[in-house]
Design brief:
The protein is mainly alpha-helical and 432 residues long. The protein is built from 15 helices and eight strands.
């Protein structure tokens, strides 16, 4: 990529930030918040798609550009989050107070804002009070349930809560022919397999907490979950492609095979990167490579047919694949060809005017099919701009680390591969 093209990607990111700040809203207490979409009446505080998801890109921009105005906006956003903690009726990582607590702690650690640190502690106190002994709500996975709360608690140093969060998976695991799985909701027949709502998301919490606390029972249960998912691979020995769910959940809305972070190999690879770091051994890098093999050959980011690759965002689309591409460039020295293609695609699909840049995703079954641009991490500017800034740094030979480490995306590993063997599940179910 030429210097001019890299500079253009950075300018696109800066325009994305300008639009994002332009649609922010002041609250009554001097805070700053974001709706999911500019047309929405209410502010949205959550890590998936609201104010908490915008703060990480503000911290990223402050470091990248050396501009403290982004830090000032992050402090004001933290003030808004602190004000809504008590009234927000969800405790989860992506949709609730655990994610808000992580962001508030990051503002404290990065910017020295003590009020944000105190609010983070208060948020986790509310989370602890919301536990019924088994779960926090209907969802029982990474994004909205126990695994994400356990992962967040561990990152915030509350080891006791982390263990309490993931222990219920021991007695709720469903035995399969090759391992274990979990329901993501009560009374829903379909079992999901991937990171967002499925088995691999549960694995993230179980493995992280199990290894950190020396609970080999939790770590081994995580590996049994992986064994079940790996047994469902339909891409042969070189690739990795597991269906969205079995039996198919909402087949009228969800494709059988996906390729992004949420339900596809781009997210599966992040779990295998985590297990590589926790357990060592050759099996995990091999699985990461197989995921990447499938992603590269899928045809994305071309919109090959209606419903295929209609999203630019971090959760379900191009920015999530860019995150993995940049991880591989930083860790393995991969050629940047696909990363550059993804950035060029984001540039081509950006809507740019005097307000800045933003992205419209597509719903091919709707008329009109172009959706209103979103602000947050999952489908909007916050998630896209964060990955663009990191890509620019890598192209310039800079730091691959983020200002805010996303809870389920392992940091780039710079040390040589460990020679130890991974823990094997008791009673069979080995990953291969």
């Amino acid at each position: 990529m030429t210097t001019k093209e890299v500079d253009g990607a950075e300018e696109l990111a800066a325009d994305g930030l300008r639009w994002l700040l332009g649609v922010a809203r002041d609250d009554a207490d001097g805070g700053l918040g974001w709706p999911t979409r500019p047309s929405d009446d209410d502010l949205n505080p959550i890590l998936y798609s609201g104010t908490a998801s915008v703060v990480p890109v503000l911290l990223e921009a402050r470091r990248h550009f050396g501009d403290d105005s982004y830090g000032d906006a992050a402090v004001r956003a933290a003030r808004n989050l602190a004000a809504v903690l008590d009234g927000h009726d969800d405790d989860s990582l992506y949709f609730g107070r655990t994610g808000m607590a992580l962001v508030l702690r990051a503002v404290h650690d990065e910017l020295g804002d003590t009020a944000a640190g105190a609010a983070s502690d208060r948020a986790m106190g509310l989370v602890r009070n919301g536990f019924d002994g088994t779960r926090w709500g209907e969802l029982f996975e990474l994004m909205g349930g126990n695994s994400g709360i356990g992962l967040g608690a561990l990152l915030l140093g509350d080891v006791e809560l982390a263990v309490r969060a993931v222990e219920p998976y021991v007695h709720t695991a469903e035995r399969t022919a090759t391992g274990v799985q979990w329901p993501f909701k009560p009374d829903v027949p379909g079992r999901m397999h991937h990171i967002s709502h499925g088995t691999l998301g549960v694995v993230c919490g179980l493995a992280s907490v199990g290894v950190a606390t020396g609970r080999t029972d939790l770590a081994e249960l995580a590996l049994e979950g992986v064994a079940d998912v790996v047994s469902r691979n339909e891409a042969g020995p070189e690739g990795f492609l597991v269906p969205h769910s079995d039996p198919a959940h909402a087949p009228d809305r969800a494709a059988r095979y996906n390729y992004g972070w949420c339900h596809g190999p781009a997210g599966d690879a992040q779990v295998f990167r985590l297990l590589r770091d926790l357990f060592g051994g050759p099996v995990w890098p091999a699985l990461v490579d197989r995921c990447w093999h499938t992603v590269v050959r899928s045809g994305l980011p071309e919109r090959l047919r209606p419903g295929f690759w209609d999203n630019n965002g971090r959760c379900c689309g191009t920015a999530g694949v860019l995150a993995l591409a940049c991880d591989r460039i930083a860790e393995q020295g991969d050629a940047p060809d696909l990363a550059r293609l993804l950035v060029a695609d984001l540039a081509a699909r950006a809507l740019r005017d005097t307000d800045g840049a933003r992205w419209s995703n597509v719903e091919h079954r709707a008329d009109p099919s172009d959706l209103e641009p979103c602000t947050g991490w999952a489908m909007g500017n916050a998630g896209i701009v964060r990955e663009l800034l990191r890509f620019v740094r890598l192209e310039r030979g800079g730091d691959p680390d983020y200002a805010f480490a996303w809870p389920d995306q392992p940091a780039v590993r710079r040390s040589p591969a460990q020679a130890t063997d991974p823990i094997r599940p008791a009673g069979g179910g080995a990953v291969s």
